[in-house]
Specification:
The protein has a single domain (5-127), classed as Rossmann fold. Helix content is 45%, strand content 20%. It has helices at 13-25, 36-46, 67-76, 92-100, 113-127; strands at 5-9, 29-33, 55-59, 83-87, 103-108.
């Protein structure tokens, strides 16, 4: 059985590396994107492959293409995938926008390792 593939789209190197380390140690295959444009390219490129990306962890506030823009572009290309949003600020307006965009969950920075793995596990179970 192949490992579930998760994309981490985060422009902050330390956070991206930490998430990768946590998820690889939890048994997932991790693909990294340093910005929104790279994330969009990876998802569209791999969507028809034998092992497409099954879940994206997406930073909302990135330079260039923001997380919101990535979600909008994925909908436009009919390539939406389950997404966990990470951000430093969470308010009711953001939560409503996430629900409207199909976001599964939201993790507030800084987060605990157990929060990340539990959130990913829940998101992938819901996807089955």
């Amino acid at each position: 059985m192949s490992k579930r593939k998760i994309l981490i789209a985060e422009d902050e190197k330390y956070t991206r590396n930490t998430l990768s380390f946590l998820l690889e140690n939890a048994g997932y295959q991790v693909v990294e994107a340093m910005n929104g444009l790279e994330a969009l390219h990876l998802i569209l490129h791999l969507k028809q492959s034998v092992h497409p990306i099954e879940l994206m962890i997406l930073d909302i506030e990135m330079s260039g293409l923001t997380g919101w823009q990535v979600l909008d572009e994925l909908q436009r290309h009919r390539a939406s995938i389950p997404t966990i949003v990470i951000t430093g600020l969470i308010d009711e307006q953001m939560l409503q926008r996430l629900r409207n965009n199909g976001g599964l969950e939201c993790l507030k920075k800084p987060f605990e390792p157990k929060e990340v793995t539990a959130c990913v596990s829940r998101a992938l179970k819901e996807q089955k």
